[in-house]
Amino acid sequence: MKKIAIIGATGSIGTQTLDVIRQHPEAFEVVGLTAQSRVKELASFVEEFKPAKVAVGSKEKAKELQTLISTSTTIVYGEEGLMEVAVDSGADIVLMAIIGSAGILPTIEALQAGKDVAIANKETLVAAGEIVIDVARRSKGELIAVDSEHSAIFQALSGQSLEDVSRLIVTASGGAFRDKTREEMAHLTAIDALKHPNWAMGDKITIDSATLMNKGFEVMEAHWLFDISYDKIDVLVHKESYIHSIVEYHDGSMMAQLGAPDMRVAIQYALHHPRRLKSDFKRLDWTNIATMHFEQPDFTRFPCLRYCYEAGRAGGTMPAVLNASNEVANARFREGKIGFLDIEKVIYETMAQHTISSSPSLEEILAVDEEARRIAEGMVKASQG
């Protein structure tokens, strides 16, 4: 039985992970959970799974949680509490499902403590990929891909050599606005962008999917996870989301991983690989699939994808700037303070103001993250007149 701690238990990935664990109580035990503010939802999970330790965002939330549970679970709070769950809850695997650059430190701490980290937090590898990968290589812990695209690549590489790989093809649904013109996108709201055609995801990542920033982040993650250059990572829009990614080898052979668009399949594999557990998740019915569509991404309509390639190739502190400015712009769009096309403007202008520092320390990355947020927030305010 594997002991699991979930950092970000009340989000989309966290709740889907708990669903996987419900289906396999013989295989998994929940020993740690965290949530920032959704105390009532967290309380219901504590009552159900009885973890040894949980963390919430503040002392006040901890007091509230204490009144809602009947278990002997230890409650901690704040950033220190989150680290405590990641490192000291007794977990074998820490599933990192927290949103944003807040996932950087707990990921590093868990790896250094020898924990396996199943990483669903894109921003950690985007902003601090070189540092995190270096920590993973030096630690006893393993960094395990959770995203369906990276899980697909990981599976397609099984038993193969990276030396034989010609390129990685990361597939994309295209997001909620994949068939919209720039003129149409200018007038669409967060409510429109949150209507993802295929996947059930959290609000932040669904907006990132609409801008194709999410796909760009996945390209950057693939670069670090599989140690392959950006020149050998392509994006292919596949509207049905049946093919989750493809590995092309030097001899022309291609290996693809397919399945219904359900994140629980990738989560379950991450938690239990290389063995596969049975599940009742939806299967693809080939007799009902009339056709599948493929097309190149449009870097003009969706420049955020291009920004990711540019930031990734630039390296140093630029990916941290890209991520921080996107977090700000994404949040302000969801709040209705800027338009959809303003997201890319905020990101572009913030990146344009940055002077890259090569091979930065973690402290430098965190400082750059803070500065980029300040600049991006200033641009949001300026756009409001």
TrEMBL record:
<comment type="similarity">
    <text>Belongs to the DXR family.</text>
</comment>
<feature type="binding site">
    <location>
        <position position="218"/>
    </location>
    <ligand>
        <name>Mn(2+)</name>
    </ligand>
</feature>
<keyword id="KW-0521">NADP</keyword>
<keyword id="KW-0560">Oxidoreductase</keyword>
<dbReference type="Pfam" id="PF08436">
    <property type="entry name" value="DXP_redisom_C"/>
</dbReference>
<keyword id="KW-0413">Isomerase</keyword>
<feature type="binding site">
    <location>
        <position position="149"/>
    </location>
    <ligand>
        <name>1-deoxy-D-xylulose 5-phosphate</name>
    </ligand>
</feature>
<keyword id="KW-0479">Metal-binding</keyword>
<keyword id="KW-0464">Manganese</keyword>
<feature type="binding site">
    <location>
        <position position="215"/>
    </location>
    <ligand>
        <name>1-deoxy-D-xylulose 5-phosphate</name>
    </ligand>
</feature>
<feature type="binding site">
    <location>
        <position position="10"/>
    </location>
    <ligand>
        <name>NADPH</name>
    </ligand>
</feature>
<protein>
    <recommendedName>
        <fullName>1-deoxy-D-xylulose 5-phosphate reductoisomerase</fullName>
        <ecNumber>1.1.1.267</ecNumber>
    </recommendedName>
</protein>
<dbReference type="InterPro" id="IPR013644">
    <property type="entry name" value="DXP_reductoisomerase_C"/>
</dbReference>
<dbReference type="Pfam" id="PF02670">
    <property type="entry name" value="DXP_reductoisom"/>
</dbReference>
<dbReference type="GO" id="GO:0070402">
    <property type="term" value="F:NADPH binding"/>
</dbReference>
<dbReference type="GO" id="GO:0051484">
    <property type="term" value="P:isopentenyl diphosphate biosynthetic process, methylerythritol 4-phosphate pathway involved in terpenoid biosynthetic process"/>
</dbReference>
<feature type="binding site">
    <location>
        <position position="123"/>
    </location>
    <ligand>
        <name>NADPH</name>
    </ligand>
</feature>
<feature type="binding site">
    <location>
        <position position="202"/>
    </location>
    <ligand>
        <name>NADPH</name>
    </ligand>
</feature>
<feature type="binding site">
    <location>
        <position position="11"/>
    </location>
    <ligand>
        <name>NADPH</name>
    </ligand>
</feature>
<feature type="binding site">
    <location>
        <position position="149"/>
    </location>
    <ligand>
        <name>Mn(2+)</name>
    </ligand>
</feature>
<feature type="binding site">
    <location>
        <position position="196"/>
    </location>
    <ligand>
        <name>1-deoxy-D-xylulose 5-phosphate</name>
    </ligand>
</feature>
<feature type="binding site">
    <location>
        <position position="122"/>
    </location>
    <ligand>
        <name>1-deoxy-D-xylulose 5-phosphate</name>
    </ligand>
</feature>
<feature type="binding site">
    <location>
        <position position="218"/>
    </location>
    <ligand>
        <name>1-deoxy-D-xylulose 5-phosphate</name>
    </ligand>
</feature>
<feature type="domain" description="1-deoxy-D-xylulose 5-phosphate reductoisomerase N-terminal">
    <location>
        <begin position="4"/>
        <end position="129"/>
    </location>
</feature>
<comment type="pathway">
    <text>Isoprenoid biosynthesis; isopentenyl diphosphate biosynthesis via DXP pathway; isopentenyl diphosphate from 1-deoxy-D-xylulose 5-phosphate: step 1/6.</text>
</comment>
<feature type="binding site">
    <location>
        <position position="12"/>
    </location>
    <ligand>
        <name>NADPH</name>
    </ligand>
</feature>
<comment type="function">
    <text>Catalyzes the NADPH-dependent rearrangement and reduction of 1-deoxy-D-xylulose-5-phosphate (DXP) to 2-C-methyl-D-erythritol 4-phosphate (MEP).</text>
</comment>
<feature type="binding site">
    <location>
        <position position="13"/>
    </location>
    <ligand>
        <name>NADPH</name>
    </ligand>
</feature>
<feature type="binding site">
    <location>
        <position position="214"/>
    </location>
    <ligand>
        <name>1-deoxy-D-xylulose 5-phosphate</name>
    </ligand>
</feature>
<dbReference type="InterPro" id="IPR003821">
    <property type="entry name" value="DXP_reductoisomerase"/>
</dbReference>
<dbReference type="Pfam" id="PF13288">
    <property type="entry name" value="DXPR_C"/>
</dbReference>
<feature type="binding site">
    <location>
        <position position="209"/>
    </location>
    <ligand>
        <name>1-deoxy-D-xylulose 5-phosphate</name>
    </ligand>
</feature>
<feature type="binding site">
    <location>
        <position position="173"/>
    </location>
    <ligand>
        <name>1-deoxy-D-xylulose 5-phosphate</name>
    </ligand>
</feature>
<dbReference type="InterPro" id="IPR013512">
    <property type="entry name" value="DXP_reductoisomerase_N"/>
</dbReference>
<feature type="binding site">
    <location>
        <position position="147"/>
    </location>
    <ligand>
        <name>Mn(2+)</name>
    </ligand>
</feature>
<feature type="binding site">
    <location>
        <position position="121"/>
    </location>
    <ligand>
        <name>NADPH</name>
    </ligand>
</feature>
<dbReference type="InterPro" id="IPR036291">
    <property type="entry name" value="NAD(P)-bd_dom_sf"/>
</dbReference>
<keyword id="KW-0414">Isoprene biosynthesis</keyword>
<dbReference type="GO" id="GO:0030604">
    <property type="term" value="F:1-deoxy-D-xylulose-5-phosphate reductoisomerase activity"/>
</dbReference>
<keyword id="KW-0460">Magnesium</keyword>
<feature type="domain" description="DXP reductoisomerase C-terminal">
    <location>
        <begin position="258"/>
        <end position="374"/>
    </location>
</feature>
<dbReference type="GO" id="GO:0030145">
    <property type="term" value="F:manganese ion binding"/>
</dbReference>
